[in-house]
From TrEMBL:
<dbReference type="InterPro" id="IPR035647">
    <property type="entry name" value="EFG_III/V"/>
</dbReference>
<dbReference type="Pfam" id="PF09186">
    <property type="entry name" value="DUF1949"/>
</dbReference>
<dbReference type="GO" id="GO:0005737">
    <property type="term" value="C:cytoplasm"/>
</dbReference>
<dbReference type="Pfam" id="PF01205">
    <property type="entry name" value="Impact_N"/>
</dbReference>
<protein>
    <recommendedName>
        <fullName>Impact N-terminal domain-containing protein</fullName>
    </recommendedName>
</protein>
<feature type="domain" description="Impact N-terminal">
    <location>
        <begin position="15"/>
        <end position="119"/>
    </location>
</feature>
<dbReference type="InterPro" id="IPR015269">
    <property type="entry name" value="UPF0029_Impact_C"/>
</dbReference>
<dbReference type="GO" id="GO:0006446">
    <property type="term" value="P:regulation of translational initiation"/>
</dbReference>
<dbReference type="InterPro" id="IPR015796">
    <property type="entry name" value="Impact_YigZ-like"/>
</dbReference>
<dbReference type="InterPro" id="IPR020568">
    <property type="entry name" value="Ribosomal_Su5_D2-typ_SF"/>
</dbReference>
<dbReference type="InterPro" id="IPR001498">
    <property type="entry name" value="Impact_N"/>
</dbReference>
<feature type="domain" description="UPF0029">
    <location>
        <begin position="135"/>
        <end position="183"/>
    </location>
</feature>
<dbReference type="InterPro" id="IPR023582">
    <property type="entry name" value="Impact"/>
</dbReference>
<comment type="similarity">
    <text>Belongs to the IMPACT family.</text>
</comment>
<dbReference type="InterPro" id="IPR036956">
    <property type="entry name" value="Impact_N_sf"/>
</dbReference>
């Protein structure tokens, strides 16, 4: 599965109609939709599709034809996203009508091509499920642990200093398993609740 970390856009033209496609992280959907409606007041349609993972790792998806004939725009956009295995991502296609009717097949192709054009110029990241862990250690082990962490694919989210030190870490399950093998005996790595 793949996702984008920032917004990308492209323009696709079909029989004088212009399709402005915007691909961005799902978390920005509402603000980008609002901005696009302000930036494109003369546009006819704001077709969208999105796919994201919920807290149970299920893919939630939705789309809207926004006034285009049913099934000719939102669903084709969603199908292109699914075919590219995009998650945690949305696409909005802003259409300016060019005066020539495209027909249902023409609309499906045009919206699909518009989404493909923006995906082709986007920088896609590979999705990996991240977990958070809490590592408790002695002060004397901190520098060794920070060295081990810097050589792994692990991020330190936070540090708490008390009787012991607590490091809050984020990485994949596989990277944590590799990391655990190198830990000193008196350190404790647990799943953060």
């Amino acid at each position: 599965m793949k996702y984008v970390q920032k917004e990308f856009s492209s323009v696709f033209e079909e029989k004088k109609s212009k399709f402005h496609a915007f691909l961005a992280p799902y978390s920005q959907f509402n603000e980008v939709m609002k901005r696009l409606k302000e930036e494109h007041p003369k546009a006819r349609h704001f077709v969208y599709a999105y796919r994201y993972l919920n807290e149970f790792d299920q893919i939630i998806e939705n789309s809207s034809d926004d006034g285009e004939p049913k099934g000719t725009s939102g669903k084709p956009c969603l199908n292109v996203m699914a075919g590219n295995e995009l998650i945690n991502t949305f696409v909005i296609v802003v259409r300016y009508f060019g005066g020539v009717k495209l027909g249902t097949g023409g609309l499906v192709r045009a919206y699909s091509d518009a989404v493909n054009s923006v995906i082709n110029i986007s920088k896609l990241q590979t999705y990996e499920k991240l977990e958070q862990r809490k590592l408790t250690c002695e002060y004397t082990d901190l520098s060794k642990l920070e060295y081990l962490i810097s050589n792994q694919n692990i991020n330190i989210l936070n540090k708490e200093f008390d009787i012991n030190i607590k490091l809050y870490l984020e990485s994949t399950k596989e990277d944590f398993e590799i990391f655990e093998k190198d830990l000193p005996l008196n350190t404790k790595l647990e799943i953060k609740l």
